[in-house]
Amino acid sequence: MPELPEVDALVEFLRPKVSGDFVTRTDVGELSILKTVDPPLEALAGLEITGVARSGKALIIEFEGLELVCRFARAGWIVWHDLVPTGPVKMGKGPLGLRVHLASGAGFDLSEAGTKKNASVSLVHDRAEVAAVAGAGPDALWIEANEFSRLLAGSRSRIKTVLEDQEIITGIGNAYSDEILHTAKISPFAPASGVDAPELLDVIRGVLGAARETLTGLPPSKVKAAKKRGLRVHGRTGQTCPVCGSTIAEVSYTDKSLQYCPGCQTDGKKLSDRRMDRLLK
Asked: What global pTM score does this model have?
């Protein structure tokens, strides 16, 4: 799932390419992607793009009086075209969710791999009309230390859960929460209320900031691969921890998994993985 660093890199790529250009046409390839009907998507035709921004993990394309809010879900992303294809778009065929044609001849797609189609596009007068944006917590890069300390102290959840909860702090997902906790040497199962909030916040800013620096300047087609290369524990079950040499372990859930280093984060102990335990019985 695209997280804060990738979306920031996407913003920096798109802003100089689309700002000042005009939308000539939009094609919908997956009907379920469109979450609003008023104003209609056709209202974008002839409008100038005035800016590109990020809100949490959402990409915002800005127009005079309207905003196109793109939420990528797990497998969504932007495909950039220096020369956008002009052929007809077949509804429900392939990864294409939405195609935006620009007056310059360029354009971009919001695509989503796989059969589950959870990416979304909302055309609104203000991004706050999108519930997920309006209900989001403070941005992970800009949250104040006192507020972060208050949020952790008042939580009864595990720290991994808190970092991924977009209503508490927005921008961090499964991958970077694993990376942050590994760098901070904190178990993903540790109670959030017992974590040193100022120290963890410094790690959050460091991990996300370094990732942004690495990814910014890359075209969208190369961002995901570059993200994967930069991960030290996430997605690396069974590999060697680059810090302590322990074997990276995993906890599996129904629809995702987390990775951690027992040597760095849990004093050498394996965390309970009920799903795998049941499979091994």
From this structure: 0.94
